[in-house]
Specification:
The chain has 174 residues and is an alpha+beta fold. Helix content is 43%, strand content 22%. Helix 1 (20-36) runs antiparallel to helix 3.
Length: 174
């Protein structure tokens, strides 16, 4: 039997309410990404720049500044995509660095996901996992708190195999 939650829901500036069940689901999905990518660092923030979660190796002491910059970077990239008729859901920004690659993507309308992976992680693999994680995070916050238990969360082997097959098929389609 699961004990009741005594933590209060959190109202985010975007108007989204995160209940403890949302928090647990978000935590599960992010920890899965940290292990499976493997990611060196993950930062999840609201589109306003408010930090929601940070996991892994922190190379910066100022997570508040990083979170704000990541949210601003995504907003600017989305606007560039709109102006050039390239906008699509789950925009992804890639920055290649000497020791690691960084990805920034939207996780629905209300969250921004920043992920840093080592240079040894294939870009396609990281992109696939980050895209799926973003989709899951988006589903979590639009799902009523009492229905969170019914979501298929995480990056299990069957889901990953299916995602890889879909990506390979899309390459050959055109």
């Amino acid at each position: 039997m699961e004990l009741p939650d005594y933590k209060k829901p959190i109202e985010l500036p975007s108007g989204v309410t995160l209940h403890p069940s949302h928090d647990r689901a978000i935590d599960q999905v992010l920890h899965d990404l940290l292990r499976k990518a493997p990611a060196k660092f993950i930062l999840l923030s609201e589109v306003s720049g408010q930090i929601l979660s940070a996991l892994g190796e922190r190379t910066t002491a100022d997570l508040v500044a990083l979170s704000s910059l990541v949210a601003g970077d995504l907003a600017a990239s989305q606007e560039i995509a709109r102006l050039t008729d390239q906008y699509q859901n789950y925009q992804l920004i890639l920055r290649e660095g000497p020791q690691a690659n960084s990805f920034i993507t939207e996780a629905g309308r209300h969250m921004v996901l920043f992920v840093r992976v080592g240079k040894d992680v294939p870009l396609g693999w990281a992109r696939l996992l980050i895209h799926e994680t973003s989709r899951q995070l988006s589903n979590i916050i639009i799902t009523p708190a009492e229905d969170i238990g019914g979501l298929d969360l995480g990056l299990n082997e069957d889901k990953l195999s299916s995602l890889v097959d879909e990506e390979l098929n899309s390459i050959w389609k055109g």
